[in-house]
């Protein structure tokens, strides 16, 4: 996922250097102010060494490295720039890391022209002379010490002899090679040449007994000369052979090549060639064909081979025999072979041989252009076409690309990119091969702004100096524009591209770019009341995936208001399509994605704040999706989009880029909305800071650092490759879930789609069994229509099918569908398989949740009549709670994780209030209490009861007392010491002080036994002993024994003080509620009511927890507010109830279960209906849309669609019903009871079963509502049904409430049952 694909680091202007680091062979060359190290065979970047690492003042200058030398023996790289020298060595600690070894600075007038280093000796050629330095250790630091200096005329080549006794130099002033003694600096010989010398090298002798001086030189006419000494003058070199074009080819052939491109001659390294030949002969010992004989002859005769590449790309191989023999008169040269033309498509000027990973091959590198080949000696020396196979190729060098990159611009679809450089020039590139390669498409010079058009094939440049926008066509097209601050392109519906410029006064200039024409369309302003801080383009990367209207511009005001704009069709102006109020200011950077997600950077004292905002803002969603504070300064933002419109954000820093993708929200984990899915770091191969980065087509990502570019992308997947691409990974993290995913199953269970869950589990079981057979699996998906099905109908169909099966008594074989149905045996097999083979892409938590949900579904199926829906919801949440606590930290290395993003799943102290409220509204509380006790292994203590919210949801006072007594006993029995203080609080609340007195009698080990026995023996119904108990309570408070102090407050009959200790000192309002309910014998006591108003409600408002607030209002008998708090802003609720709150937290509308609770409560009682009538239809509409968006964020898209399809917007009817029609007129038969008892609200199907409504508020006496009997002959006025307008929605609801209250006062007359009504 997003691996390096290509590096564009500049290309060599001349020759290369070699470095052998077995098993790799490296190529090195200077590029601008850096040294580039490449793999010789693949040309893949290994490392970039920057000169400014040693000399920071050279950073961002136009100076370039002029000389480079490599010592393979010491693994030392030496580079020179002007008068400075830097040496790098391979780190001994980290094998692939290079560190600065040493530096050297010469005098200002000694500009370095050439270098060579070998075995601790450094030869430095300057414009004034030649110097030799030796490497010494000074204070354990490597230092270069000057050995000698001689005057020389600008040497351009310098090379140590293999023996290090001599050094050869070449000057640009004459055509001679000068030899110097390395020890003394004395010039020993001058060897004149007829033409300028271009290359110089020493031959490494193969004989171990002597160290002969054999030198090769190549002159500008491509003639190679061989110099070696004679017997009587062993230190004096003489010319013994010259290989020119005519010595290699017949005269007629050579003459034909004189007029063409010049040829180039190269010597082939004897050692590298010999090693490859040895391996070939060892692998083919028995073969005796012509090819093997040729290889054997070359090896046995010890020929030196020379390669000449002609202008037509053909190759001539010349052999020179007897170089190691004496006397030199035995030298013999001959042409070994002449290959066909175009062997080299581009004849190079430099050629090098290096070892190949395959020992039977040789790596051949050439430049320019930079290219690498695999040379097979067996085929090459047989003149076969497959003897030289290209493995990698670089681009031609463009000197202008040595300037630093300033920024990137791309085409709207990302298939072309423009690179702007510090020299005001740049180039256009096109992305090819599915985002894995860039090719040049054009260049420009002297531009301030650039836009790239036609997928990178065309550019338009703008210069501030003359105000000209130039379209680079033939001929050039220009348009004069005002001064611009930014320039960008947008797709146009007409097919041509739209160029948009923004002036300093935020005027918008629009131009249309056609094939060879620029047209100025309009110049206008956005209709804003105040000048914006930014006007930015909305990223158009994904516009081609949708045909809907797209916002083109984003404006950001100083006050933090984001506004989105589309151009009018008439080109007359801009229209605002939406606004988001962020509440932030002082923006540093902003970017907007294709789907209108906006990333904002605001600098602060703690670092840069990154926020991501959705464009949808309502009273239920502020639009904020993510907030993160980064200590490191954020330098760049850029958006991309997947094919399914998922947004990806690249956050650029100085040394790395964070790739953020949207993270699917879950029902239990409150993770951030966005998460890091990939970090791109370039420090491992380059020291340059990142100057810009940009997304391109196919999910490719381009990074610019210095003058270099690095392309990241997903490699084309081979057959059978299971690796994920970036788009696949993002879709898995935030796309629609599979049917079997535990979150989808959970939501289906919460929304009473039990039969659907059964079908999904059956499909999963069959798919998993199939996966076991062949290792592959085709997941079976449930048709989306099943998510819209009526569970009641499904149950009836299932029952009918089973009943029909029972009609036949003969022993018929079971149908296949019956065998594969949902059953205990199927569930057992499935769970066993899942435990052995976890499903792919599920975290350990999700895997455990899936198994528990499957088990829970089986229990529901077997006990469906005993457990209601709300009880089921509580049961699922309780089991998930224990799973999360059991797996407090998910193991990222688990095989079941499969690279999924680990979530923060720390241990939770309690269930969420949401889950407790489901149990509160359940009618199966005794079953839930049993399940809760079983979850605690039958020994529930108060920490368990608090975690499960027993005191909040258990409605029966007697059950609560019984449970508290069990908790008291378990607290007492929990420790080995049997401490009576652990249970005193609960027993005193239950009024069982005598029982505690008995427990103290058994606590002989306790130091307080005697005191407590004496004290508890008193009668606490007397005021004096109550006062004594209160005094003891205060004493215990001072000793910070808070729970025991609360117990003594109860003993002293001061419930209020005990409750205050629980709330303030213990921070446990649940314990306070439990004590108040038990002591006050109900839910209406003043102490309990004060807990609700003074503690629970302020806590709910501070946390933004609507579930807790709804529960408190319900018990306060304000059930209208219990409904309204689910949808109404908390500020309005606080004002309506006069809640004393100092802080109102962020409203949490990220839970679709809020809609489920609202649908249950809105018509449950008359008070709830009153609260519903006070919620506007528009608010309810926005609420449902928000819940559907939350479903989509959870990956449950089918359930989101089901919600908006099936939601019933309850509206009270305000129609005035006239007198009933006479029986003679009504031919529909007698009315059914359902029709007669129809409620005033048109309820959703789930609520229409309700035949009565709980009257929980006083209804004032109302006048008779029955109309008078109709009189004969009197025309009766028809009463039309009123249409409820949205703006009068609230009034309409309140009017409907009045009708509802009237109907509540009337006696409902049910007609007698008439069987004929059904026929």
From TrEMBL:
Pfam families the UniProt entry points to: Rav1p_C
Annotated protein name in UniProt: RAVE protein 1 C terminal-domain-containing protein
Entry's Gene Ontology BP terms: vacuolar acidification
Domain RAVE complex protein Rav1 C-terminal: 568-1203
InterPro entries xref list: DmX-like/RAVE_component, Rav1p_C, WD40/YVTN_repeat-like_dom_sf, WD40_repeat_dom_sf
Cellular component GO terms, alphabetical: RAVE complex
Organism encoding this protein: Crucibulum laeve
Region annotation Disordered: where it falls in the sequence: 1215-1239
């Amino acid at each position: 996922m997003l691996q390096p694909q290509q590096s564009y680091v500049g290309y060599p202007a001349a020759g290369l250097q070699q470095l052998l680091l077995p098993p790799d062979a490296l190529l090195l060359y200077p590029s601008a102010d850096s040294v580039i190290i490449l793999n010789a065979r693949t040309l893949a970047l290994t490392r970039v060494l920057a000169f400014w690492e040693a000399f920071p003042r050279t950073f961002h200058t136009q100076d370039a490295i002029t000389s480079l030398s490599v010592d393979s023996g010491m693994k030392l790289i030496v580079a020179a720039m002007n008068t400075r020298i830097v040496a790098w060595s391979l780190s001994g600690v980290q094998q692939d890391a290079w560190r600065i070894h040493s530096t050297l600075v010469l005098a200002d007038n000694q500009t370095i022209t050439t270098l060579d280093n070998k075995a601790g000796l450094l030869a430095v050629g300057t414009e004034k002379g030649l110097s030799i330095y030796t490497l010494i250790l000074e204070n354990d630091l490597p230092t270069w010490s000057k050995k000698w200096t001689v005057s020389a005329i600008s040497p351009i080549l310098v090379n140590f002899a293999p023996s290090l006794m001599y050094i050869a130099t070449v000057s640009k002033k004459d055509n001679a090679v000068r030899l110097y003694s390395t020890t003394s600096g004395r010039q020993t010989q001058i060897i004149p040449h007829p033409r300028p010398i271009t290359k110089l090298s020493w031959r490494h002798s193969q004989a171990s007994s002597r160290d002969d001086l054999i030198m090769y030189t190549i002159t500008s006419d491509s003639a190679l000369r061989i110099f070696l000494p004679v017997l009587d003058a062993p230190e004096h070199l003489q010319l013994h052979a010259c290989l020119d074009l005519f010595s290699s080819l017949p005269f007629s052939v050579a003459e034909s090549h004189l007029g063409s491109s010049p040829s180039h001659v190269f010597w082939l390294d004897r050692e590298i060639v010999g090693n490859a030949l040895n391996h070939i002969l060892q692998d083919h010992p028995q073969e005796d064909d012509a090819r093997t004989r040729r290889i054997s002859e070359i090896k046995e005769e010890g020929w030196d081979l020379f390669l000449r590449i002609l202008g037509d790309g053909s190759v001539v191989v010349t052999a020179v025999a007897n170089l190691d023999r004496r006397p030199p008169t035995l030298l013999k040269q001959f042409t070994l072979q002449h290959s066909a033309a175009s062997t080299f498509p581009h004849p190079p000027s430099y050629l090098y041989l290096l070892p190949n990973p395959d020992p039977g091959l040789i790596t051949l590198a050439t430049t320019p252009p930079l290219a690498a080949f695999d040379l097979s000696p067996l085929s090459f020396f047989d003149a076969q076409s497959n003897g030289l196979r290209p493995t990698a190729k670089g681009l031609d060098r463009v000197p202008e690309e040595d300037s630093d990159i300033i920024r990137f611009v791309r085409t709207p679809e990302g298939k072309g990119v423009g690179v702007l450089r510090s020299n005001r020039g740049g180039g256009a590139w096109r992305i090819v091969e599915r985002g894995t390669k860039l090719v040049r498409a054009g260049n420009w010079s002297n531009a301030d702004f650039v836009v790239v058009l036609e997928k990178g094939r065309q550019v338009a440049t703008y210069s501030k100096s003359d105000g000209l926008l130039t379209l680079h066509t033939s001929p050039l097209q220009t348009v004069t524009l005002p001064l611009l601050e930014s320039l960008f392109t947008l797709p146009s519906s007409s097919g041509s591209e739209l160029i948009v410029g923004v002036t300093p006064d935020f005027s918008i200039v629009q131009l249309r770019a056609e094939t060879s024409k620029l047209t100025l369309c309009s110049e206008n302003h956005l209709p804003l009341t105040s000048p914006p801080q930014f006007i930015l383009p909305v990223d158009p990367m994904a516009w081609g995936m949708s045909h809907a209207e797209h916002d083109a511009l984003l404006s950001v005001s100083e006050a933090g208001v984001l506004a989105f704009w589309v151009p009018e069709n008439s080109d007359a102006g801009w229209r605002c399509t939406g606004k988001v109020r962020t509440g932030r200011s002082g923006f540093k950077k902003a970017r907007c994605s294709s789907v209108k997600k906006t990333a904002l950077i605001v600098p602060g004292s703690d670092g840069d704040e990154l926020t991501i905002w959705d464009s949808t803002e309502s009273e239920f969603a502020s639009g904020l999706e993510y907030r993160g504070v980064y200590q490191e300064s954020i330098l760049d933002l850029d958006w991309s989009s997947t094919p399914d419109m998922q947004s990806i954000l690249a956050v650029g820093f100085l040394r790395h880029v964070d790739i953020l993708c949207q993270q699917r929200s879950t029902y239990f984990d409150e993770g951030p909305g966005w998460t890091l899915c990939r970090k791109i770091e370039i420090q491992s191969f380059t020291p340059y800071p990142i100057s810009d980065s940009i997304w391109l087509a196919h999910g490719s990502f381009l990074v610019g650092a210095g003058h270099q570019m690095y392309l990241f992308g997903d490699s084309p997947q081979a057959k059978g490759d299971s690796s994920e691409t970036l788009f696949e990974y993002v879709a898995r993290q935030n796309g629609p879930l599979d049917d079997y995913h535990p979150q989808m199953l959970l939501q289906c269970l919460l929304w009473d789609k039990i039969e659907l869950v059964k079908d999904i589990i059956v499909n999963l079981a069959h798919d998993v069994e199939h996966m076991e057979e062949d290792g592959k699996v085709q997941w079976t998906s449930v048709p989306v229509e099943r998510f819209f099905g009526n569970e009641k109908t499904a149950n009836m169909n299932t029952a009918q099918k089973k009943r029909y099966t029972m009609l036949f008594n003969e022993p018929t074989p079971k149908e296949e569908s019956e065998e594969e149905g949902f059953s205990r045996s199927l569930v057992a097999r499935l769970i066993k398989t899942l435990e052995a083979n976890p499903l792919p892409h599920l975290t350990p938590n999700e895997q455990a949740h899936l198994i528990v949900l499957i088990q829970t579904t089986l229990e529901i199926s077997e006990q469906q009549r005993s457990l209601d829906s709300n009880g089921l919801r509580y049961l699922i949440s309780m089991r998930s709670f224990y799973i999360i606590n059991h797996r407090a930290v998910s193991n990222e290395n688990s095989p079941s994780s499969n690279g999924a993003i680990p979530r923060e799943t720390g241990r939770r102290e309690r269930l969420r209030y949401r889950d407790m409220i489901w149990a509160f509204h359940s009618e199966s509380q005794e079953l839930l209490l049993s399940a809760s006790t079983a979850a605690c292994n039958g020994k529930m203590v108060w920490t368990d009861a608090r975690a499960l919210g027993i005191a909040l949801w258990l409605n029966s006072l007697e059950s609560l007392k019984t449970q508290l007594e069990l908790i008291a006993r378990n607290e007492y029995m929990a420790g080995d010491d049997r401490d009576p203080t652990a249970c005193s609080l609960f027993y005193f609340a239950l009024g069982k002080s005598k029982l505690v007195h008995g427990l103290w009698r058994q606590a002989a080990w306790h130091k307080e036994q005697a005191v407590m026995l004496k004290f508890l023996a008193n009668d606490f119904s007397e005021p004096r002993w109550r006062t004594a108990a209160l005094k003891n309570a205060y004493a215990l408070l001072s000793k910070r024994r808070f729970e025991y102090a609360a117990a003594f407050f109860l003993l002293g009959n001061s419930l209020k003080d005990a409750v205050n200790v629980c709330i303030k000192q213990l921070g446990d309002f649940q314990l306070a509620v439990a004590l108040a309910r038990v002591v006050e014998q109900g839910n209406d006591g003043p102490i309990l009511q004060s807990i609700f108003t003074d503690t629970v409600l302020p806590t709910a408002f501070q946390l933004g927890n609507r579930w807790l607030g709804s529960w408190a209002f319900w018990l306060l008998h304000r059930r209208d507010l219990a409904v309204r708090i689910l949808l109404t802003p908390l500020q309005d609720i606080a004002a309506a109830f006069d809640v004393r709150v100092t802080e109102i937290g962020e409203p949490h509308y990220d839970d679709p279960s809020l809609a489920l609770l609202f649908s249950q409560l809105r018509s449950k009682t008359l008070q709830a209906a009153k609260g519903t009538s006070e919620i506007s239809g528009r608010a309810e509409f926005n609420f449902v849309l928000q819940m559907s968006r939350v479903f989509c964020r959870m990956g449950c898209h089918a359930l989101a669609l089901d919600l908006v399809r099936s939601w019933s917007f309850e509206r009270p009817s305000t129609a005035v019903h006239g007198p009933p029609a006479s029986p003679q007129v009504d031919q529909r038969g007698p009315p059914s009871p359902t029709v007669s008892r129809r409620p005033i609200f048109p309820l959703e199907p789930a609520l229409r079963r309700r035949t009565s409504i709980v009257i929980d508020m006083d209804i004032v006496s109302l006048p008779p509502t029955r109309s008078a009997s109709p009189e004969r002959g009197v025309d009766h006025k028809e009463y039309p049904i009123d249409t409820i307008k949205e703006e009068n929605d609230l009034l309409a609801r309140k009017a409907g409430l009045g009708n509802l209250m009237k109907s509540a006062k009337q006696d409902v007359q049910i007609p007698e049952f008439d069987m004929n009504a059904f026929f």
